[in-house]
């Protein structure tokens, strides 16, 4: 009889645990977002990228102008080099070599600067998106919001990317 009573108590305890686990599971709200899509499609991210690409074009123009200058120096040396004195030709050749080194340095510096700015822009956008997602999580009582690339499979019904894009565009 005592065993029966203990088993009954244990059984009831397990049933309560299971029922509370079911209740907890029913309250779980999961969302999935595609960050890459947000960064491509949101107006706010497009505007930030447009500013970045405008800067890229300015830097590219500066580089192209310098490159054209070096090419003009090469052409001048090829066409007029035969008529120059050895001293003048040596000066032009040395000057051209210096300009080519400077052009290579300029290219390297510009590439490094643009990579750095691109990383900074990406980090800023991700940070802004993270804030929006965090606020949305609290406001809509989500338990967890996952990035779509880290999820093996999910129902499209839990994809909230469009909502986050709209919120991001409103805020920015």
Explained architecture:
The chain is mainly alpha-helical and 172 residues long. The protein has one domain (2-171): Protein Binding, DinI Protein, Chain A (2-Layer Sandwich). Helix content is 78%, strand content 5%. The chain contains 5 helices and 2 strands. Strands 1-2 form a two-stranded parallel sheet. α2 packs across α5 and α4 (86-139) crosses α5 (161-171). The longest helix has 54 residues, at 86-139. The N and C termini lie far apart (70 Å).
Task: Briefly summarize what is shown.
By secondary structure, the chain is mainly α. It is 78% helix and 5% strand.
How many beta-strand runs?
2
Helix and strand element order = HEHHHEH
CATH class: Alpha Beta
Per DSSP, what share of the residues sits in E-state strands of 2 or more residues? under 5%
What's the arrangement of secondary structure elements?
Elements: H1 2-26, E1 30-33, H2 35-41, H3 43-80, H4 86-139, E2 144-147, H5 161-171
Parallel strand pairs: 1-2
Helix pairs in contact: 2-3, 2-5, 3-4, 4-5
Features:
172 residues, mainly alpha, Protein Binding, DinI Protein, Chain A, two-stranded parallel sheet, 5 helices, 78% helix, rod-shaped
């Amino acid at each position: 009889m005592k065993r029966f009573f203990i088993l009954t108590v244990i059984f009831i305890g397990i049933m309560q645990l299971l029922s509370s686990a079911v209740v907890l599971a029913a309250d779980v709200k999961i969302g999935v977002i595609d960050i890459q899509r947000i960064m491509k499609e949101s107006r706010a991210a497009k505007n930030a990228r447009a500013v970045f690409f405008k800067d890229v074009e300015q830097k590219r123009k500066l580089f192209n102008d310098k490159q054209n200058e070096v090419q003009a120096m090469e052409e001048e040396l090829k066409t007029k080099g035969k008529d120059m004195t050895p001293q003048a030709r040596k000066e032009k050749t040395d000057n051209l070599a210096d300009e080519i080194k400077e052009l290579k340095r300029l290219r390297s510096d510009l590439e490094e600067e643009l990579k750095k700015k691109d990383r900074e822009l990406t980090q800023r956008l991700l940070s802004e998106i993270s804030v929006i997602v965090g606020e949305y999580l609290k406001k809509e009582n989500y338990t967890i919001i996952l990035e779509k690339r880290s999820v093996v499979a999910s129902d499209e019904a839990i994809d909230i990317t469009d909502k986050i894009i709209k919120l991001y565009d409103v805020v920015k």
